[in-house]
């Protein structure tokens, strides 16, 4: 058994009083931020607010940005963009894993470069291609037929 634990930053575990203390804010401020959709905590079955570690970090960032004179609307936009960046990074990581799995599952797949003149060259793994070339991952016809059934 491993001695390391992965912390879920999105797990809603802190009651509002604890979250307010950790963020250095009054609980009423957290309620107001929830009402306007700035930092929205999870809820228990009974409706009580539960804040995650990520929520606490967002509250601290709100306090910092607000202290620097940024409006709550601008802060909301910053938080939304940070969420989008986090989601995109997660998606890129997932796609990289899928690509690695696909490469491992298809050791015979080959990459070709097609130049502007129409010439086609098979590339070895790790070969760099000039900017004017297009890269195409070749999929054997029998595997394409069921994937492209509508064409």
From TrEMBL:
The entry's keywords: Coiled coil, DNA-binding
GO MF annotations, alphabetized: DNA binding; DNA-binding transcription factor activity
Alphabetized InterPro entries for the sequence: DNA-bd_dom_put_sf, MerR-type_HTH_dom, MerR_fam
SMART domains, sorted: HTH_MERR
Pfam families with a match to the protein in the record: MerR_1 (PF13411)
Coiled-coil region: 78-105
Gene3D superfamilies: 1.10.1660.10
Domain HTH merR-type: 13-81
PANTHER family reported in the protein's UniProt record: HTH-TYPE TRANSCRIPTIONAL REGULATOR YFMP, REDOX-CYCLING DRUG-SENSING TRANSCRIPTIONAL ACTIVATOR SOXR
Protein name as catalogued: MerR family transcriptional regulator
Organism name: Microbacterium paludicola
């Amino acid at each position: 058994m491993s001695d390391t634990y992965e912390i879920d930053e999105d797990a809603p575990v802190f009651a509002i009083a604890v979250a307010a203390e950790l963020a250095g804010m009054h609980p009423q401020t957290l309620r107001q931020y929830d009402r306007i959709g700035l930092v929205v905590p999870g809820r228990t079955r009974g409706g009580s607010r539960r804040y995650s570690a990520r929520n606490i970090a967002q509250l601290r960032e709100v306090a910092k940005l607000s202290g620097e004179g940024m409006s709550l609307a601008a802060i909301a936009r910053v938080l939304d963009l940070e969420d989008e960046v986090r989601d995109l990074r997660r998606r890129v990581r997932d796609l990289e894993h899928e690509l690695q799995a696909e490469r491992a599952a298809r050791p015979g797949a080959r990459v070709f470069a097609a130049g502007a003149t129409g010439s086609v060259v098979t590339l070895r793994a790790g070969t760099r291609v000039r900017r004017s070339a297009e890269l195409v991952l070749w999929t054997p016809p029998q595997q394409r037929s069921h994937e492209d059934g509508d064409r």
